[in-house]
Amino acid sequence: MASTLLARINEQINQFSKTEKKISTYILNHAELIPNMTTKELANKADVSEASVIRFPKKIGIGSFKTFKIVLAQELAVKEEYITDFSILQKKDSPYEMFQKVVHVNKNAIESTMESVDKKELEEAVTALKNARKIVFYGVGGSAIAAMDALYKFTKLGFQVEFNLDFHYMLSRVPHLNSEDVFVAISMSGRTKDILDLAKLSQEKGAKVIAITNMNKSPLYKKADIRLATPNVEQDFRIGSITSRMTQLTIVDSLYISIFNIIGENVLDEFQEARDHVVELRR
To answer: Are strands 160-162 and 182-187 parallel, antiparallel or unpaired?
Structure first.
């Protein structure tokens, strides 16, 4: 196909009937929702008959509504979907429609991570973390959430783990690292000065730096010893870090599960003991 479905619909919209324009307008404004809709649901949303929805795909050269949804879903999967930039103000969706969009973009972001993470780099990261004397995680803003999550998870595995939001505190801790340690820098842009400064100091002390960052124009990506690339799923100017945080958390979870799979039997007793204490505290 020379153009995407949405582009084709937009190009032909002035040639459509009044009913077809209603369907087209809804599809163009809510493309993310269409792959999960039935013909009846789309008809209700567009305020047209179900028969009109069934006929519509043929108008643009698609055999059926089912095929239309499949092709559209494939296009959306490779299209940059932004729900966190300020263009969202141009659409007034219901809470449930917004929920569906959030689910859609988060799902696509996680699936895109499968394409961005290099298998060899992931294996090197797992080996480095497994053998580390101490692991330091650091991130600021939305990335700090992924760093905090990593702190909790790797502490449960019995590692010496450190993370603190205070940059000056971290600056006082990094000089104590050595060649047996790992510094995990988490940053969507890879341009945050605090992250870059700590990563550089860690390398100077001999520690291995693992970067969880966007591979596009990221200075951190270029400087790191091991690179776990996140896909480009958000713009810098946004109302909140949502989809990028999902990719970071997915990578952290993958590292945690991989290492637990390797050393789990050695820490199973400690896991059970901690679990027993948690259950006791709930009573």
So the answer is: unpaired
Place of tokens 């459509």: 16
Quote the pLDDT of residue 67: 86
Integer Cα distance of 5 and 74 in angstroms: 11
Count of all residues that appear for the chain in the document: 283
- Backbone torsion region of residue 139, taken as left when φ is above 0, otherwise alpha when ψ lies between -120 and 50, otherwise beta: beta
Say how far apart CA 156 and CA 272 lie, in whole Å: 11
Q: How far is CA 29 from the centre of its chain?
A: 23
Query: CA geometry: angle at 238 spanning 234 and 243, to 5°?
Result: 40
CB 75 within 8 A of CB 53: no
**Could you give the CA distance from residue 266 to residue 186 in angstroms, rounded to a whole number?**
28
Which of 3.30.70.100, 3.40.50.10490, 1.20.1510.10, 1.20.120.140 is the CATH number of 113-282?
A: 3.40.50.10490
Task: Decide: 226 and 124 in contact? Cβ < 8 Å.
Answer: yes
CB count within 10 Å of CB 263 equals: 13
Q: Are 234 and 82 in contact (CB under 8 A)?
A: yes
Contact 62, 71 (CB under 8 A): yes
- Considering the four listed CATH numbers 3.90.180.10, 1.10.10.1590, 3.40.50.10490, 1.10.10.10, the one that applies to the domain covering 1-78 is 1.10.10.10
Q: Write out pLDDT tens, residues 41-67.
A: 999 999 999 999 999 999 888 888 988
In the beta sheet, which residues pair with residue 213?
187, 229
Tell me the pTM: 0.70
pLDDT band at 255 (very low <50, low <70, confident <90, very high): very high
